[in-house]
Amino acid sequence: MAPVAGGDLGYTPPDGGWGWFVVLGAFMSMGLSYAFAKAITVFFKEIQDFFGASYSEIAWISSLLLAVMYAGGPISSILVNRYGSRPVVIFGGLLSSIGMIIAAFSTSILQLYIFIGVIAGFGFSLNLQPSVIVIGQYFLKRRPIANGLAMAGSPVVVATLAPVNQLLFDSYGWRGSFFILGALLLNCCVAGALFRPIAPKVMKSKKNKGKKGDKVETGLMEKEEMKMVEQKKEESCMQKFNQVLDLTLFKHRGFLIYLIGNVIMFLAFYAPIVFLTPYAKHLGIDEYSAAFLLSVLAIVDMISRPATGIIANTKWIRPKIQYFFSASIIFNGFCHLMCPIAGDYVGLAVYAVFFGLGFGMVCALLFETLMDLVGAKRFSSAVGLVTIVECVPLLIGPPLAGAIVDATGDYKYMFYTCGATIVFAGLFLLVMNFYNYRMLEKEEKEKQDKEIEMKETNGFSIEDKKQAVDIVGQEVKTEQELIIDKPDLENCSKEELNGSDPK
């Protein structure tokens, strides 16, 4: 199995201390970013009636929001690599807040697409990426637990916002609700303030050094600086770009498997959430009870994420975390296949419980499995590349699901399609990860065999070479001593050679 990644940062993460405040900030930032796409679905039925839109048209609001949130990943990663997580999250909080406040004055469905989908969605992308990256900088051994706790922010916010949104709608309408929600998003700025930068400690040079040693060290430093300058001149544009966004990841087999599996999954991942409340209202369930289904889902999701993180951190699961992730996806898809059986409120509540369990498991492992594959050093680039590719299925998934509902007039076919798609994605990842691990073992074995063969070809090991060099050095030294002690025969007289006294 693949080793636990993350030891390539150049320093040892603290795995605690201020890191827990960072987890709290990520909890708030990711919670608000992920939750809004789900929580605003409470208003969809009323907005649909207000603008006279179809199911497919109204689904574009969440679809654009999610797509832009993921498409902004590379930009967010580049900004984090350049400026750090703290200023990026603070700016993202301001941008998402402005988008929601302006959306309160919309006069058409197109304006909602722009203000909520594009502006607020891009703000959420600036909140999401840095929150995930900064946890990888503060945690290594406890990283699955930290990720699980941070990702639990989404269900906590959904569980709170779903009934609150219905209450806000009854009191202020959807326009007033959007204005209040925009002000609430300013809390992302507070979350960003908790993201204190962390960097490896610089070793201080010893004070008691000789002048000669200082000069030598200064000369070496100057030579290293000259080499760095020459290397920078020789770098191509692509190499410079790879420093902020590593495109060589597309040659990484494990990364490609993860990417393909997630693209298939995200085609159907969010559509069931978008249409859960409208489906309940379609069955004749009242507004508050329909909105409460999201709270049931979110409460179970809230427990599922940190619990999954704790399980994933155990010595039995962590080396096999890719298999655990695949099984979670299959379970999630199976829940959607069973949803059409639920024909009343009790059945939908049971579905919401299992849906929340499967959804929480997948979300808790989503970024941990990626970091396990590529390592913490390349994780920032990996997240950016994954999210920009995943924005395509997120963009077309919910509208396609809405088109199925419009065409058939029934929600069950939409749930069947989503369930089958997600199960297929889980099976794909399960089989391909098995293949990837087999290939890694084979490559590692071939590498070891090659090293042994090289040693045998050379005749002796590196240790033997060192010993041989030492022996030769000693022999040379002995010969030099003999030459020094040997008398100068040419300059000696015959008497001295015969041992007689010249006197």
From TrEMBL:
Keyword flag Cell membrane: yes
NCBIfam families found in the cross-reference section: 2A0113
The name this protein goes by in its record: Major facilitator superfamily (MFS) profile domain-containing protein
Pfam families cross-referenced by the UniProt entry: MFS_1
Domain Major facilitator superfamily (MFS) profile: 22-437
Cellular component, GO, one term: basolateral plasma membrane
Subcellular location, principal: membrane
Subcellular locations according to the entry: Basolateral cell membrane
Membrane-related topology note: Multi-pass membrane protein
Signal peptide: none
Catalytic function, reaction form: 3-methyl-2-oxobutanoate(out) + H(+)(out) = 3-methyl-2-oxobutanoate(in) + H(+)(in); 4-methyl-2-oxopentanoate(out) + H(+)(out) = 4-methyl-2-oxopentanoate(in) + H(+)(in)
Gene Ontology MF term list: monocarboxylic acid transmembrane transporter activity; symporter activity
Keywords annotated in UniProt: Cell membrane, Membrane, Symport, Transmembrane, Transmembrane helix, Transport
Transmembrane domains' residue ranges: 18-37, 58-80, 145-164, 176-199, 255-276, 288-311, 323-343, 349-367, 379-401, 413-435
InterPro entries: MCT, MFS, MFS_dom, MFS_trans_sf, Proton-linked_MCT
Family the UniProt entry places it in: Belongs to the major facilitator superfamily. Monocarboxylate porter (TC 2.A.1.13) family.
PROSITE patterns: MFS
Keyword Ribonucleoprotein: no
Organism the protein comes from: Leptobrachium leishanense (Leishan spiny toad)
